[in-house]
């Protein structure tokens, strides 16, 4: 069996460690900002724990605030600079040569005066430092678990200060690209702390600014789909203030580190119709850190709300000491905080209407709280709609199959608790250089189960599809050509007709690798890569039309007030079947033109047959 495996990640590891710091007195022309812009007063701090960029601190410039592009940040959230703009497209200047990626640009800052507890001028003796943590993309540890793309040695992350005195930008620090593992071997840490004293009086003016930006380069690869987002840099815990000192890394701050988990054992979201209580977790894994120099007493609790804002349950984990992170890079281990039980029975909706629940997790240090309360709360919205999702909606990588065979197959396993109708597939494809993956063709395909692997094809499109893109982190809905009644375990995916890299979004923070299979020869293989495909099968009425016209022009079938209406000129009996193929309505042959109106029926898919004609599918919406 000839095969070239099978799976390539878009984002590959970088090369060797280069000089970490460069100081160059380079003055660059300043781009004027709005004249009426409000100036930021000290202290300036952002740990990117909010889900979106703070417009009160930053100008928007393509930098992506997220919670998953690097493992174990100082606190929840980070800012990621890469080769994509804010729309999820490669920058127009992206080539094999170096080009500028994202920019993280601060708003103008009052570095001339302090205003609390009283107003006074700032001088160099006030010991002003700008500090931050950074980590090159690509993650660390086992290659199959790594996140993002490592900047190569020709790539770099650059920090510049704006000099209001001379109205120009000056480079004050930069670092070249290298793997995080190499960085750890030299320093003993993955996330690197760096601080810069500000003593030059040219900066101590109203209107001081700073900015990070990255220089990127694309790999030398001509295969469609392989050239895409690359060269990430992750930045966190930026602090600018007076009264600081060299290596001032500690702050009285107890915080969450990782995103809030799903309430479900296997999925991030699932159809309301399919939910059973056995799908619930027993406990909720959390990561909590203490950035201070000594243990801090902390309380923890969570509350679950329904979609009307009503409280369903509250858990109180009591008081626990949170260990100091700096001593052994350790996190909270007390189970009452780190693994709280989930003793909750969610109501199973009998009408299977979409619904959601919101889980709010909260920390508090001591009585008055710590220095940065914004990272003491994380929230998860548990969605029960019409689709399954292993992924969280953010692609840290791209996934594809690279083979010499034109028959390339990719499948993801889903197990239904009750019979249902597959009507659509939601897919997210990453943008590639020059839209290189747009012309790759594939068939949406569904397989049955064969002892834990995909078996026989039970559905395949007649017409080929191609990757579509509707915006950053926005799925494209592909309607099946015909609804498919399913039960038990099925495998939903794609069958390509060429050996091209399709670049499907791949979430690295939720591991569904046990359910991902590929075939590039004669045998199905289970992936070794940690993550989940951004592939979401949708079930029920919502991905199809509510009325379906028969081919005969003298017949009309439609829905009115949850009743099926059949208008026909044929002298033939009318039979209506439910989703299981059981007849629920039978009429006698009419003497002439007739109209049949059923009693109100539950929402779902039905089959309507007039005489011996082929059955027509009809959907009753909730």
Residues in β-strands, percent:
35-45%
Rg for CA atoms: 28 Å
Instruction: Compute the average pLDDT.
Output: 86
Helical residues, percent: under 10%
What are the low-pLDDT stretches, counting only 5+ consecutive residues below 50?
Answer: 1-28, 542-553
Instruction: Identify the overall geometry.
Output: globular
Tally of domains: 4
Number of helices: 3
What is the strand tally? 42
CATH superfamily placement of the largest domain: Galactose-binding domain-like
Kindly, what is the distance between the CA atoms of the first and last residues, rounded to a whole number of angstroms? 50 Å
Largest sheet data:
7 strands, antiparallel
**Class derived from helix and strand content:** mainly beta
CATH topology (fold) name of the largest domain: Jelly Rolls
């Amino acid at each position: 069996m000839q095969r070239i495996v099978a799976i390539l990640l878009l984002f590959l590891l970088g090369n060797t460690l280069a000089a970490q710091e460069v100081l160059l007195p380079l003055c660059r022309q300043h781009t004027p900002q709005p004249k009426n812009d409000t100036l930021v007063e000290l202290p300036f701090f952002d740990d990117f724990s909010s889900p979106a960029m703070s417009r009160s601190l930053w100008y928007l410039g393509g930098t992506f605030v997220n919670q998953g592009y690097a493992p174990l940040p100082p606190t929840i959230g980070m800012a990621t600079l890469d080769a994509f703009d804010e729309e999820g497209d490669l920058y127009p200047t992206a080539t094999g040569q170096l080009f500028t990626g994202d920019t993280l640009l601060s708003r103008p800052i009052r570095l001339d005066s302090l205003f609390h507890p009283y107003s006074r001028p700032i001088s160099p003796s006030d010991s002003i430092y700008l500090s931050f943590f950074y980590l090159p993309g690509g993650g660390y540890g086992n290659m199959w678990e790594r996140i993002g793309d490592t900047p190569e040695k020709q790539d770099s992350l650059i920090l510049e200060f704006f000099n209001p005195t001379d109205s120009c930008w000056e480079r004050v620090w930069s670092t070249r690209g290298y793997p995080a593992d190499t960085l750890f071997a030299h320093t003993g840490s993955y996330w690197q702390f760096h601080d810069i004293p500000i003593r030059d009086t040219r900066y101590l003016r109203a209107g001081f600014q700073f900015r990070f930006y990255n220089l990127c380069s694309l790999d030398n690869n001509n295969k469609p789909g392989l050239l895409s987002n690359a060269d990430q840099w992750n930045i966190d815990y930026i602090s600018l203030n007076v009264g600081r000192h060299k290596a001032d890394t500690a702050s009285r701050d107890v915080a969450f580190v990782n995103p809030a988990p799903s309430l479900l054992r296997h999925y991030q979201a699932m159809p309301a119709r399919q939910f059973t209580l056995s799908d619930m977790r027993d406990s909720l894994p959390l990561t909590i850190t203490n950035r201070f120099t000594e243990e801090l007493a902390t309380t923890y609790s969570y509350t679950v709300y329904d979609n009307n804002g009503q409280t369903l349950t509250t858990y109180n984990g009591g008081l626990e000491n949170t260990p100091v992170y700096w001593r052994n890079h350790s996190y909270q281990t007390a189970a009452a905080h780190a693994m709280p039980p989930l003793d909750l029975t969610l109501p199973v909706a009998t009408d299977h209407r979409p619904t959601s629940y919101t889980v709010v997790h909260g920390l508090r240090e001591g009585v008055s709280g710590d220095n940065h309360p914004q990272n003491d709360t994380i929230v998860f919205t548990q969605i029960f709609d019409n689709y399954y999702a292993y992924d969280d909606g953010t692609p840290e990588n791209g996934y594809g199959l690279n083979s010499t065979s034109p028959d390339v197959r990719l499948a993801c396993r889903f197990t239904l608790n009750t019979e249902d109708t597959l009507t659509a597939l939601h897919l997210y494809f990453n943008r590639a250089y020059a839209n290189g993956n747009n012309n790759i063709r594939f068939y949406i395909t569904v397989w049955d189960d064969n002892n834990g692997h995909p078996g026989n094809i039970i559905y395949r499109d007649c017409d080929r599809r191609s990757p579509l893109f509707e915006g950053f982190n926005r799925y494209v809905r592909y309607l099946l050509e015909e609804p498919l009644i399913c039960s038990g375990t099925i495998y939903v995916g794609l069958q390509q007709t060429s050996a091209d890299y399709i670049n499907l979004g791949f979430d690295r923070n939720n591991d569904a690798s046990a359910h991902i299979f590929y075939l590039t020869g004669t045998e199905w293989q289970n992936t070794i890569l940690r993550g989940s495909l951004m592939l979401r099968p949708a079930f029920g009425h919502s991905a199809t039309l509510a009325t379906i016209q028969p081919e005969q022009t003298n017949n009309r079938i439609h829905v009115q007030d949850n009743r099926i209406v059949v208008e026909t000129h044929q002298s033939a009996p009318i039979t209506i079947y439910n989703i299981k193929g059981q007849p629920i309505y039978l009429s006698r042959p009419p003497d002439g033109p007739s109209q049949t109106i059923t009693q109100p029926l539950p929402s779902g898919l039905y089959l309507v047959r007039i005489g011996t004609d082929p059955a027509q599918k009809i959907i009753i919406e909730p």
